Amino acid sequence: MRDFSLPPLVEIPRSGGLANSVHERAERTPDLPALARRGGPEGTDWIQVSAAAFRDEVTALAKGLLANGIAFGERIAIMSRTRYEWTLFSYAAWTIGAQVVPVYPTSSAEQVRWILADAEVAAVVVEHEDHAMSVGAACGGLPLRRMWQLDAGCVEQLTEEGRDVPDALVGRHRNAVGPDSTATITYTSGTTGRPKGCVITHANLMAECDTLFAGWNTILAERGEQPSLLAFLPLSHIYGLMVQVFCIRNGVTLGHQPDLAPSELLPAFASFRPTFVFAVPYIFEKIYSRARQVAEESGRGELFDRATDVAERYAEAIERRHMGRGPGPGPMLRAAHAVFDRMVFTRLRAVLGGRVRYAVSGGSSLRRELGLLFAGAGITIYEGYGLTETTGAVTGQPVGRVRFGTVGRPLPGCAVHIGEEGDVWVRGGVVFAGYHNDPGATGAVLQDGWFATGDIGHLDDAGHLVITGRKKDIIITSGGKSTSPYVLEERIRAHSMVSQCLVVGDDRPYIAALITLDPDALHHWLRLRGKEAPAAGSAGQAGRRADGASHPVPDLADQDLHHEIQRAVTAANSAVSRAESIRAFRILPREFTAAGGLVTPSLKLRRSAIVQAYAQDIEELYTV
To answer: How many CB atoms lie within 10 A of CB 511?
Structure first.
């Protein structure tokens, strides 16, 4: 199958913009909670913000922006972690017809300067003093008129400055915004060069969020509860921004969690207790790894492994039944599943607060085995696929018909086409308007409404898309063999100790890999085997986590460790031909980081930067 499409489920409004939903919700259900924000002495309580109260806050802040000279169509950059004020500022900007330009809070001064200059930003909102210094170092010579700092009380300041602005002026601005108006210029992660600004319209975000809600609304509040969602993905990424709009537009209570570290995120899940989760595979991998570590430390590792095996087989049997290929789980499997549900799976669900039964994964592909495991444990993960240029998802799993290992079918109103070389093209109302200030790049990827994603894949017999790699990442060895690193990298990363994997081999005689380890998983592995962390000053000296706690880095001379990772490599090689298999690998002493310029803020590997940074290590893989 080369083409698949579905008719639209929703009709995009002919007038108005995203801010209208704030007012419509306040009029319809003024007292229902629109958001929840941190409160209490230690910030662990959640204080509900009604739809009417949020509307009033948005309007007051919009007045402050007008009082400070922000004009219709001007651009406001937001450089902050995921927090309540991010959402507040974006809707205030959309209320007066301004455009939002997200900036990753981890961006360097050079990256900040490029985005502020390319987008011709008039004002910028930063979170704290460090961000203000980054902007200050970058904005020399730029037409930047205003900078506001969240931690310095800028919301209160702007609200006070806008008190005399009449409501009618705000209303005229909001009424002038149309579906085709630009809502945001969101920059790509820049894995292969300078980030490109994707022009996303109000209609793009409406099509995306309304279509997803129309398809998934039956499971959002399946048990009659007020649906709620904890936003923890960066709002500077299109996925996180889409989640925000999805909630505000469709009556889902939205909370914010700025820190993705498991030590911060898991307690937030426990206190907020969402009914639904939007996440990336990394989150589900961390939840699984942590659950397995706890089981091993309590002497229940074998029981946990039996439970996960039952969960996967149970979910696979249900999947086959939905596909018309089997009767579903048999009586013995159902009985075993019921036992493990009480003993193991309830604890796994409790990690997400206990109320989540459905989740969405995007950003990169979720391993089929992990999807089956969570489904068997009582949390069905609906996987989607998309890019910044498609406003987030352009495909998604249909409710009740998940095919694990695929990224679903085209969203209603969208189409997928597979080219002669397996290249994936998409079309629909979610496809962006083009790259800002770059007609050449726009023309290279947009043809007659079709967008060239740059990914390669295929459609199965039911129109589900399977992504097999990135076209630009194809490796060609010196023997002329073409290999996509995607399958190998994903399978190696399935090992609980592996954090990242980069497969190399361009113009080389065979395929090799650079592998980094998860520090927490390594610490757990060492402790179970009675091994000590390497002494300071050795090749694998102990390091420090961001929270200040010590953790080991790999002892590269540890043969047991090498054999453990060899198991992951061998398992990955079983999925490819001999010519495509990894013949050599190297464990690196530390992970690739965004601070080091080796991964993007959305955790994608910057391949060329890693190859350059570890050129000597790669060379040694071919000279041993």
So the answer is: 25
Q: Under DSSP, is residue 503 helix (H, G, I), strand (E, B) or coil?
A: strand
Residues 52-77 as b/e (b if ≥16 CB within 10 A, e otherwise) read: bbbbebbbbbbbbbbbbebeeebbbb
The encoded tokens of residue 119 equal 């987008």
CB 200 within 8 A of CB 432: yes
Given a cut of 50, is residue 526 above it in pLDDT? yes
Categorize the per-residue pLDDT at 260 as very low, low, confident or very high, splitting at 50, 70 and 90.
confident
Q: Decide: 292 and 520 in contact? Cβ < 8 Å.
A: no
Task: Tell me if 384 sits within 8 A of 486, measured CB to CB.
Answer: no
The per-residue pLDDT for 99 is 98
> Kind of pairing, strands 475-476 and 465-470?
unpaired
Residues in the chain, overall count:
624
The full DSSP string for 125-181 is EESSHHHHHHHHHH-TTS---EEEEGGGTHHHHHHHHTTTS-HHHHHHHHHH--TTS
Burial of residue 105 (CB within 10 Å: 0-12, 13-18, 19+) is: buried
Amino acid found at 595: A
Question: What's the token pair of residue 493?
Answer: 């990363």
Q: How confident is the model at residue 528 (pLDDT cuts 50, 70, 90)?
A: confident
Residue 257 to residue 261: CA distance in whole angstroms:
10
Chain segment 427-436, per-residue pLDDT in tens: 999 999 999 9
Confidence check: pLDDT of 360 > 50 = yes
Instruction: Give Dmax (Cα) for the chain.
Output: 74
Nearest to 382 by CA among 486, 460, 517, 284: 284
Instruction: Please give the full DSSP string across 550-600, using - where no structure is assigned.
Output: EE----TT-HHHHHHHHHHHHHHHTTS-GGGSEEEEEE-SS---TTTTSB-
Task: Quote the DSSP letter at residue 343.
Answer: I
Closest CA to 424 of 391, 464, 392, 397: 464
